[in-house]
Predict the 3D structure of the following.
Amino acid sequence: MISARGVLDPGRAIDLETARFRLRSLKPVDASERWLGWVQDPEVVHPANAPVRHMTRQELAKYIGSHDNYTRYLIGVFDRRADSTSVSSSSTSIELTIPRPST
């Protein structure tokens, strides 16, 4: 969303629950050793057609923070029955088309 100052403001975070899972926008604080292990494991990332990545926890937090919940979403899937353990994540980008003023 473009603010009155002409700056892109973050959109509203996603937060959905089912009987078994919670899907929500991820935050930099969600960067974990478990997630770092996933991005470094070829058996985890290759089926998702993603490259193996070697990054620090701080770099992962920065990547998570680059999603603005307006044009870029990073959604975590959490198991509600297992102390909210993260089981998956998905990144989605949305291309916004801003109409040109008529001349």
